[in-house]
Amino acid sequence: MAPARALALVSLLAVAWLLAVAAADDTATSTSSSSPAPAGWLKANATFYGGADASGTMGGACGYGNLYTQGYGTRTAALSTALFNDGASCGQCYKIACDRKRADPMFCKPGVTVTVTATNFCPPNYALPGDNGGWCNPPRPHFDMAQPAWEKIGVYRGGIIPVMYKRVPCVKRGGVRFAINGHDYFNLVLVTNVAAAGSIKSMDVKSSGSDNWIPMSRNWGANWHSLAYLTGQMLSFRVTDTDGQTLEFTNVVSKGWKFGQTFASKLQFK
Ligand SMILES: *[C@@H]1O[C@H](CO)[C@@H](O)[C@H](O)[C@H]1NC(C)=O
């Protein structure tokens, strides 16, 4: 083959590969080996937790509870202080790949990405140095991933791998869901199944008899509260995601609701 034609073929293959990286998830793609990290990708490290069935990832600092029934499954991660942002990152989605350039090739599954939702906080461990066990200590960006998600990109024996990551829009089935907890004068609402940004910046609540939106505060993770007496009243929520999109979930909570009930809307962020 003439050198020029061979070069053209190689370039074509390279382009096809790059396109595959952009489109694919949990599938074989190419991670660029040129430095620095490709545009839009940031550097971090990643470990795993929670066991082969991810049972140990249930609960978690975002408050999503049972991740299987809530639809998050085993594609989840706990974020270090630098990434968790006091819970403001809860629900965000990240595409992660082993950084072949920095990794021990024995422990890296190159050409694969996995997308996870932030469901937990990886706390600092100041008893251990950041480069030897204190992986989640500030200022380190670190993903402690559910083991099945991590094993998509890393080899179990490796334990920790350097990764590249970028935030991506979350893909969800169905609408946003609201679970009501707390008690009288302490209305605690867990917001789950948020698509696109995935994370909530602010929200208000309104009872059907009123014209006033009552601001809610982030209580912990994806739980928001107000101190108004709302028990049993038909409720609407006005929610702004961290990308600035606002949706009104009119009368999404029906009259006569009980603490512990979950209400699914038909509306979803785009
Ligand atoms: C990943 O871990 C290595 C080893 O501790 C460290 O040198 C590197 O700075 C870490 N990367 C990031 C982005 O924190």
SSE order and pairing:
Layout: H1 3-23, E1 42-49, E2 76-79, H2 81-84, E3 93-98, E4 113-121, E5 142-146, H3 147-153, E6 161-168, E7 177-183, E8 186-192, E9 200-207, E10 214-220, E11 223-226, E12 235-241, E13 246-253, E14 262-264
Parallel strand pairs: 1-5, 2-4
Antiparallel strand pairs: 1-6, 2-5, 3-4, 3-6, 7-8, 7-14, 8-11, 9-10, 9-12, 10-11, 12-13
| Count of distinct structural domains | 2
For this structure, what is the CATH class of the largest domain?
Mainly Beta
Mass-distribution shape: elongated
Number of strands: 14
Main sheet makeup: 8 strands, antiparallel
Q: Could you please say which CATH topology of the largest domain applies here?
A: Barwin-like endoglucanases
User: What small molecules does this complex bind?
Assistant: 2-acetamido-2-deoxy-beta-D-glucopyranose
Please, how many helices? 3
Strand content: 25-35%
Radius of gyration: 21 Å
Q: Which CATH architecture of the largest domain? A: Beta Barrel
**What is the percent of helical residues?**
10-25%
Q: Structural class given helices, strands, pairing?
A: mainly beta
Strand neighbour order, sheet with most strands = 13-12-9-10-11-8-7-14
Order of helix and strand elements from N to C terminus: HEEHEEEHEEEEEEEEE
